[in-house]
């Protein structure tokens, strides 16, 4: 949700710790809990339509969080009306094939997938077209009860271009994905949960809080193990089972060279909380 609509107790947590707000014109960055960065898309007049300036701001904010040793997890959200209602059609309307092909238009929209730290998308309202694709780039998706997802690009004479045809199919299966992409139909939070598209559904006003809570839990674990787990899952989705299992085992072995592994297992034996250092 936008900070202007946050409940007072939550807003009081966010505002004092906005570290990079002056750098960005289309996103607001805060640290609502230790180890957690919250990035809120902030183009309210256009329902957070994804424009080039917004994508550049979002990519920069995520890169900052990814390289910040104090951050363990990232939450991306929008407003209660819209996570992101789609791409900015006015920006795309008059582009030619040469424009989009020669400049690899929207290639940088996928930079979220290069972030090593876990990303949670907290989706309220509309997440259509590019907004739906952005949500699918996250590692975990939480939805508000009134969230609406979809890939309606077919109605504009185009197709999804930032991963919609690929990620949606992997998440919900070919038949459902094909129906949605070819018709432009939308689906709600209830269907998204039933299909395994989202992990959980919450009341709109509680959504960001719940996402931050989960991000806090993740940030409290050993950073190297968390990133290795994310890496193993994502790599396994791109290869066969045997390759995925081998890669997983190699990452598992590598973590025995870390201080965090020694601390985690020692803490378990000593029946105390582990104090991870990310080393």
- Distance between the ends: 35 Å
Major sheet: order of its strands?
1-2-3-5-7-10
The radius of gyration over CA amounts to: 19 Å
Q: What does the largest sheet look like?
A: 6 strands, mixed
* Secondary-structure element pattern, one letter each: HEEHEEHHEEHEEHHEHEHHHH
- Overall SS class: alpha/beta
Provide the CATH superfamily of the largest domain: 2-enoyl-CoA Hydratase, Chain A, domain 1
Mean pLDDT: 90
Number of domains: 2
Please tell me what the overall shape is: globular
Indicate the percent of residues in helices: 40-55%
Protein name: ClpP/crotonase-like domain-containing protein
Would you kindly provide a written description of the structure presented here, covering whatever features stand out?
This protein folds into two domains: 3-219, Alpha-Beta Complex (2-enoyl-CoA Hydratase, Chain A, domain 1); 223-269, Lyase 2-enoyl-coa Hydratase, Chain  A, domain 2 (Orthogonal Bundle). The chain is built from twelve helices and ten strands. The protein has helices spanning 8-14, 52-67, 89-92, 97-102, 130-137, 164-172, 174-183, 189-194, 207-219, 223-236, 241-254, 259-269, and strands at residues 27-33, 36-41, 73-77, 82-84, 119-123, 126-128, 140-144, 148-150, 186-188, 200-202. Residues 1-21 have low confidence and may be disordered.
């Amino acid at each position: 949700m936008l900070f202007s609509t946050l409940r007072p107790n939550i807003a009081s947590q966010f505002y004092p710790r906005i570290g990079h707000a002056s750098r960005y014109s289309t996103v607001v960055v805060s640290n609502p809990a230790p180890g957690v960065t919250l990035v809120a898309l902030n183009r309210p007049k256009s329902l957070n339509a994804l424009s080039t300036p917004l994508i550049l701001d979002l990519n920069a904010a995520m890169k900052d969080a990814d390289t910040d040793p104090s951050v363990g997890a990232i939450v991306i959200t929008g407003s209660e009306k819209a996570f992101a209602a789609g791409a900015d059609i006015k920006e795309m309307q008059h582009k030619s094939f040469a424009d989009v092909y020669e400049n690899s238009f929207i290639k940088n929209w996928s930079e979220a997938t290069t972030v090593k730290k876990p990303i949670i998308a907290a989706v309220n309202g509309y997440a259509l077209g590019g907004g739906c694709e952005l949500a699918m780039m996250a590692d975990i998706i939480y939805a508000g009860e009134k969230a609406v997802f979809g890939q309606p690009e077919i109605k504009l004479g185009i197709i999804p271009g930032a991963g919609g045809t690929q990620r949606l199919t992997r998440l919900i299966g070919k038949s459902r994905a094909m129906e949605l992409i070819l018709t432009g139909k939308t689906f709600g939070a209830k269907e998204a949960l039933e299909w395994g598209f989202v992990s959980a559904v919450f009341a709109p006003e509680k959504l960001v809080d719940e996402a931050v809570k989960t991000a806090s839990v993740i940030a409290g674990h050993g950073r190297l193990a968390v990133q290795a787990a994310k890496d193993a899952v994502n790599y396994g989705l791109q290869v066969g089972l045997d390759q995925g299992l081998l890669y997983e085992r190699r990452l598992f072995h590598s973590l025995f060279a870390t201080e965090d592994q020694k601390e985690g297992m020692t803490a378990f034996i000593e029946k105390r909380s582990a104090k991870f250092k990310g080393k």
